[in-house]
Write a structure and sequence with these properties.
2 copies of one chain form a homodimer. Chain A has 711 residues and is an alpha/beta fold. Chain A folds into 4 domains: 4-97, no CATH class; 155-218 and 258-298 and 463-511 and 601-647, FAD/NAD(P)-binding domain (3-Layer(bba) Sandwich), CATH 3.50.50; 308-462 and 648-704, FAD/NAD(P)-binding domain (3-Layer(bba) Sandwich), CATH 3.50.50.100; 512-593, Recoverin, domain 1 (Orthogonal Bundle), CATH 1.10.238. In chain A, 40% of the residues lie in helices and 18% in strands. Chain A is built from 24 helices and 29 strands. In chain A, the strands form 10 sheets. Chain A has a 5-stranded parallel β-sheet with strand order 10-7-6-14-25. A 4-stranded parallel β-sheet of chain A has the order 18-17-16-22. In chain A, strands 2-1-3 form a 3-stranded mixed β-sheet. In chain A, α8 (197-205) packs parallel to α21 (601-627). The longest helix of chain A has 39 residues, at 99-137. Chain A starts with 7 loop residues before the first strand and ends in a 7-residue tail after the last helix. Chains A and B meet through α2, α5, α10, α11 and α13 of A and α2, α5, α10, α11 and α13 of B.
Chain lengths: 711, 711
């Protein structure tokens, strides 16, 4: 009971006692006790007899002790006092406690608080670990006798049919295995080709109960492409950028087929799918659809340059792995005896063709790796021989970004001795050198060459085969050679209305307003009993038309802000009305100002989200529409707004620094920007799992450096 | 100053006040304050005027308040009292505080402590994360202008020489880049072939300042082989089992060459090393050595069975990756339409040939994966079609373990419906089925077959090419066809003394005591002036010889415990002495009892440690030996004890359970044993880095399940 906090003994020198009145002393002692944060005490009286053995009798004593209860006998107080703290009251005041004790106590207190904090910390961490293990123990499953699973006969033995007499996948193995899947199997079939940004955004936004969803893709994972350059040198692990598509699909009772779509039979609403078997043969079958979304992405653009078989690309995990292997193989070869100085330099020369974000970030990551990790494990000489080059056909790297950003990146790379070659056009790639022509200061092209150990080709994207095939199916409607054209509802032009959609890199939204001029004018002309060509539009009518255009082509919004100015500007004959030719000129002018959407993850993501939400809404509206007997109409337009792209900004990593371009507001900076850059991607990461893995990777890099084993 | 802990107000009913004397009430209130853990207070006096507005005037009041200082004016006390806690003293005693307040207070207190604990926890975690980021920020390096590095001319332009006129790697690129490396480059050259358990144990135990160390291995990483089966189904990541050999070598100022040793020129002390170049050509060169350690390991044993090209193996990361890919490819193929029921069953039939730890653990991991993770993402039907088979030629699986363990594993697998086929000998492996003969209950062999989707071949190990070549170099001394024979000092028999060592799977320690009988008897016979064959050994002499044997062949220790019994037993003519033939019989008997060392990580590790320590000691002793003019003697024997293998036990994972065999003490059990099994390997892991990664993997598996994307 005699805890330190409950009790203390004051030794008061007789001279002080004489000078002060007892009540005052008692009060002071109480206040003193407070300042020591001692617990409540009750000032009582002098009781020399019970504690005499602890105190020298030459000093008059005053005891302040807490009575635990009113009946505590004096013999219990004595040992309590023995353990109590002792204060000495001298002529200089009560403040001086027994010095040695005081110092000890301070040390003790420091120690006490430090150990309290450390103890709490350790306890927290241990508790977390213990909690994890307790949870973990529940994740191991003993075998419950494998339960019977209902399987539809059609899934085991599919019907043969379609133009090529192939099995038709009407029913899936797991369609009847649980209630939720049984319900969804009666819903319209939504088939998504691809497993990239667009597909995953769609999957995450569509209501799983409204459709029977199937994803067809040869790539069984979603890849977080913006961080792929970091994976090439071991800053991040491949796994942290990847989410198995089956995991995503499982959350919405969907299905996944690891195969590639080869051809689409739009009339029969069948997708011809092919899967290579291990013995080299190919199994083909049909997957039926009610709604089809093409989100197959793109492939690297060769720009017709020869020798790209010597180059590396950077679009898939496999590409990143090949780069990683090559980087480390080159390092090892450079260490071998018999490798000449020239050869060594060539092996350690890294050439990046293309100054876009991918190329720039790869160069930056590579450079950081050489700078931060190479010397720890490889001979220092190699560090001096390494060179990184960026060959850019434009005048700047990152030329789609704000100029300020582009300049910052140049400056940064100059400091980092990354060699940026602008206005340089690659002519061909040989086995060990890149041949390119570069304009000199006078604008005259000079042929140059760069020996390389690794050459990355990242100069933009082009169509995949299936995309070409789809576009070619509708020669009447599809005119763009670079992508599948869709309307602003993302429906593939030419395909049956509301059945086929295209999103992401493989598609582009056609925004040719001029094409629709007859539609806009028809009703007005009819009312005025004249032909469209002869109709004169008043300002009021032009405003209505402009509103109509804005609704149907949201991308045109910013070019239609000043309808009055436009009207005056294009009213060439100052008649106060616009003739047909004048209106055509006006609309063409707007068309020319509208740029096509960028081939970025951001766009694909937004399009996927848009479709996901629209599909959910469409399913909801189906019943109402049926009641209202609205069929064979433009249901999409009735139910949901057209797609509009909101550019949220671009960002890039430029070697222990990062650049941001938020709709014209640019931000450039060092390490803080890098952490911000990471945060943005961390937040956008596809699942909690990948976020946890990303964090672990950063932890690993921080603690142990980058990984130097290409596995 | 009016903190809750410092002050309270008691409202005493007039009736109570009348019944009790004021001093007693004051004392009781003080005690009451204590029980509420309130801070020190000084009982003063009633002061109704200062607090009257807070208390109903119908109740007589008694105020207990702490005076912050003796000079606190009453007007400061009033607000303090307002915030103070209020106690109500009723006829039932002081214990009842104002009820509503009391309940609120209890809630408040609970909330307070919970938030205190949570707050501390969150603070700790946040502090750790913040601390990490602060540390992390220091790990990014801005370019310091690449410094000049000294390089020896010999490293850039090596001398040509040796039997085949190849470049000789006398000096390395990084030999002169720092003081430590400069010093070590003048030391004896220690070259280690291989990067497995033996090599790494040696590297970790040798003193880096005593040798110029080079590791030559085509595999650039150390692989933690015992956990490899866990990596096949994503329980662990490949990376967590791997430590880059360059990282280990860097810590001891050593060198690493990623190439394979093809041939050893023992006379010139040169190793012929070959490295395949990307263009398909091969670069060959010599690496000189003063001491050579062969630790190249082994390869899978085919046992002459045909068709193993269809099988998977499990010795490297690449093997594990191939298995992982095949498992998931088979699952995907099984989902496709047009796959027949029979084909589906075949694809999901996993056959493991070999019932050793690797095979058993692989089967267990595979089974766990199917049981715990498959149904989350694949159709449940597949789970019912999966089958796992172990084909074991012996009567038990895990037959090198204690019988109890073997039985437990059988029982476990029976529960888990893993099909264990004992006494079954594989005859050949076809593209889709394993043909084997199994003895039935009558002991008659029956031919059977098992269709498979994946067949793992793990039936023991055999020699690599370089090992065969080394053994063949000393036809006089090397007689074992299964490994390089060494003496008990791990020196390769036949090679120049003290120059070539062999450890790990590729080697065996020859313990043929009988062979040395002449040596043992020579001195005795000479003393007795007779020939060895005719010499009769007394018991005393036999004891001396036994001691000598024990010293030179420590593995014979346990068979030489009862020297007297042995003497009596083999003294067939009861002459009291042993003749030459009797001694030969005795030694042969001991030889027959000694088993060869197991081909395990444990043995390789111990041999590596042994050599590391011995080499350090040898380097230290060199000077002394030179002074004593001891040259061309058995220096190893003079300086260090012979190698002795201590079996520490075996362990294996058998599917959410683990078995341990500690020198006869066996331990089997469920989840707790699994955690123990993990702890053992966690502790034995090669670096802090791999430990951290292992822990993260377990965390990931616990939180998100196994990884289902083979990358």
């Amino acid at each position: 009971m005699a805890s330190r906090a409950a009790l203390f003994v004051a030794r008061v020198q007789p001279s002080i006692l004489a000078r002060q009145t007892r009540p005052l002393l008692v009060k002071s002692l109480a206040s003193r006790a407070l300042s020591y944060r001692l617990a409540p005490l009750c000032v009582d009286s002098t009781r020399p007899q019970s504690v005499s053995k602890f105190i020298r009798p030459s000093i008059a004593q005053l005891y302040c002790c807490r009575f635990v209860s009113t009946s505590t006998p004096p013999e219990q107080i004595a040992p309590a006092v023995a353990k109590a703290e002792k204060l000495e009251i001298t002529t200089s005041g009560i403040s001086s406690a027994v010095p040695s004790n005081s110092f000890k106590r301070r040390i003790y207190r420091l120690f006490y608080y430090v150990s309290l904090i450390v103890g709490f910390g350790v306890t927290t961490v241990c508790t977390l670990v213990a909690a994890f293990f307790m949870y973990d123990a529940t994740t191991y499953k003993e075998l419950d006798d494998a339960e019977d699973v209902e399987v539809a006969l059609l899934a085991l033995d599919p019907v043969i049919g379609g133009p090529k007499n192939l099995p038709i996948l009407e029913s899936y193995l797991d369609d009847e295995e649980c209630e939720a899947k049984k319900i969804s199997s009666s819903k319209p079939r939504l088939v998504i080709l691809g497993s990239g940004w667009g597909a995953v955004a769609l999957l995450k936004n569509v209501n799983p109960n409204d459709y029977h969803i199937t994803v067809i893709s040869p790539r069984n994972h979603f890849l977080f492409t913006p961080m792929l350059p970091s994976a090439t040198v071991g800053t991040l692990e491949f796994r942290s950028l990847v989410e198995p598509i089956r995991r995503i699909v499982a959350t919405i009772n969907g299905h996944y087929i690891e195969a590639s779509a080869e051809k689409i039979e739009f009339n029969d609403r069948l997708i011809e799918v092919k899967q290579g078997l291990p013995d080299g043969s190919i199994r083909a079958f049909y997957v039926p659809y009610d709604k089809l979304v093409v989100a197959v992405g793109s492939q690297s653009n060769t720009h017709g340059v020869d020798g790209l078989e010597h180059c590396n690309f950077l679009k898939t995990i496999e590409d990143a792995r090949l780069i990683r292997e090559k980087v480390f193989r080159n390092l090892e070869l450079a260490c071998l005896p018999g490798t000449s100085e020239e050869e060594r330099k060539r092996l350690l020369s890294f050439v990046v063709c293309g100054g876009g974000p991918t190329g720039v970030e790869f160069a930056a990551e590579l450079y950081d790796f050489f700078n931060e990790d190479l010397c720890n494990t490889y001979p220092k000489l190699l560090r001096n021989l390494v060179s990184v080059h960026i060959v850019q056909s434009q005048g700047h790297i990152l030329n789609t970004y704000d100029e300020k950003i582009s300049e910052y990146a140049h400056e940064r790379f100059k400091n980092d001795s990354i060699d940026v070659l602008t206005n340089a056009r690659v002519k061909c790639v040989e086995a060990d050198r890149v041949i390119f022509s570069q304009k000199n200061a006078e604008g005259v092209a000079e042929n140059k060459e760069l020996p390389y150990g690794l050459c990355l080709w990242s100069t933009g994207v082009t169509l995949c085969d299936i995309t070409k095939d789809i576009a070619a199916s509708f020669p009447q409607s599809q005119h763009n050679r670079r992508a599948i054209e869709t309307d602003t509802h993302l429906r593939v032009l030419g395909a049956p209305l509301g059945e086929v959609y295209a999103i992401g890199d493989c598609s582009t939204v056609r925004t040719n307003i001029t094409e629709h001029i007859f539609e806009f004018l028809k009703t007005y002309a009819m009312k005025a009993n004249t032909t469209v060509e002869k109709f004169e539009i008043t300002f009021q009518q032009w405003r209505d038309i402009a509103t109509n255009i804005k609704r149907r082509f949201p991308q045109a919004n910013e070019h239609l802000r000043r309808v009055d100015t436009l009207f005056t500007e294009f009213d060439e004959d100052h008649s106060g009305t616009l003739g047909f030719s004048e209106l055509t000129a006006l609309l063409k002018n707007i068309d020319s100002k509208m740029t096509s959407l960028p081939a970025t993850a951001q766009r694909a993501n937004q399009q996927g989200q848009y479709l996901g939400r629209k599909f959910t809404k469409l399913a909801r509206a189906q019943e109402t529409l049926a009641m209202d007997e609205i069929v064979n109409k433009d249901v999409d337009d009735l139910v949901y707004k057209p797609f509009v792209y909101h550019h949220l900004g671009s960002l890039a990593y430029v070697g222990n620094a990062a650049v941001f371009d938020f709709n014209g507001y640019s931000l450039v900076g060092g390490l803080v920007a890098v952490y911000l850059w990471r945060s943005v991607y961390f937040a956008q990461s596809v699942s909690f799992r990948t976020r946890a893995l990303l964090f672990m990777d950063w932890l690993t890099r921080g603690l142990f450096g980058r990984d130097i084993t290409p596995l």
